[in-house]
Amino acid sequence: MDARLARIAPAPAGNSFAEALLMGFARTPKEIACKYFYDETGSRLFDRICDLPEYYQTRTERALLQRYAPEIAALMGPDVEIVEFGAGSLRKVRPLLDRLKNPRAYTPVDISGDHLADMVRTLAADYAGLVVRPLVADFTLPMTIPTLLGRPRRAGFFTGSTIGNFKPDAAVALLRRMRSMLDGGGLLVGVDLVKDPGRLHAAYNDTAGITAAFNKNLLVRANRELGADFDPDAFAHYAPYNASARRIEMYLVSLRRQSVTVGDQRFEFAQGEPVHTEDSYKYTTESFREMAARAGFSPRAVWTDPERLLSIHWLES
Ligand code: AVJ
């Protein structure tokens, strides 16, 4: 296997944590883009979120992928290159790799190069003979995935309900770009479903406080990486469900009037002022199929669990 890391599409100006934070703080309300949650500490906190009793998403999706892997593999067909967007720990794809007929290559795309290199080593040890071709890239930015020898048909794998972090128009644009990156291949997408607001609220307001720590880690990260002087205890984790917009909204709310220094800039926070840190949109199976169609896909199969907590969609190009 080839585990060299290809770094493609280097981050353009405005895409570093420093620039994103300064630009985000110039807006009203202030905001920090959610992709900056995932430094090493944040990735570890997110792994703990996935194991929380209130956070049904990860275990529900894992069970669905396990159960329907044979069907999914049959729909994808033989001799495909699997392209995973936002691959993370490379664990979710395994049941699928186990069932695919003669997979030609596995191309995990992730923004975190060091983590990806470690994870690729672990995966490759268990899948001798599989061509693994990691790409270090931000898949939210325009990029072209280099063609492999023989140009195998591609199938995309985009799980974890990451699509929910994008506003609907941006989600359509992202799906469109993925469709073009897949070069005629289909896309498997995991999407969290609209459900009892109480259940949604609990999933983002866990009693152990892990989601709060995950949210506040943005401030801890800014202190460490940007020399900022945030007091994380002077901000509250606030994550209400906006039922009319069908999304969880996450904020850090300033508990008092305070000023904070980031690099050579000072920012004022009023008491009660929110910093928006994440949206997590929820869909019905129908509303997601409509969105996929707007992106040019033909929605085919959908799988859900018996409680209808989460969905997995197979979209054809
Ligand atoms: C990684 C997009 C699935 O929206 O649930 C978990 C991240 N944020 N708790 C989500 C998250 C707060 C998340 N996704």
What are the main properties of this structure?
alpha/beta; five-stranded mixed beta sheet; globular; single chain; 34% helix; 9 helices; 317 residues; binds N,N,N-trimethyl-histidine
The gist of it:
With 317 residues, this protein is α/β, with parallel strands linked by helices.
Number of beta-strand segments: 15
Query: Considering DSSP H and I runs of 4 or more, what fraction of the residues is helical?
Result: 25-40%
Ranges with pLDDT <50 over ≥5 residues?
none
Shape: globular
What is the distance, rounded to the nearest whole angstrom, between the alpha carbons of the first and last residues?
29 Å
Percentage of residues in strands = 15-25%
Structural overview:
The mean pLDDT is 94. The strands form 3 sheets. This protein has an 8-stranded mixed β-sheet with strand order 1-5-4-3-6-7-15-14, sandwiched between helices. Strands 2, 8, 9, 10 and 13 form a 5-stranded mixed β-sheet that branches. It has helices spanning 17-25, 40-50, 57-76, 94-99, 113-126, 168-181, 197-203, 210-226, 285-294, and strands at 6-7, 30-31, 80-85, 105-110, 135-136, 153-158, 186-192, 235-238, 241-242, 247-254, 258-262, 265-269, 274-281, 298-304, 310-316. The chain has 317 residues and is α/β, with parallel strands linked by helices. The longest helix has 20 residues, at 57-76. α2 runs antiparallel to α8 (210-226). A hairpin with a 4-residue loop joins β9 (241-242) and β10. The protein contains 9 helices and 15 strands. Bound molecules: N,N,N-trimethyl-histidine. N,N,N-trimethyl-histidine (AVJ) binds at residues 49, 57, 160-162, 164-165, 204, 211, 278, 280.
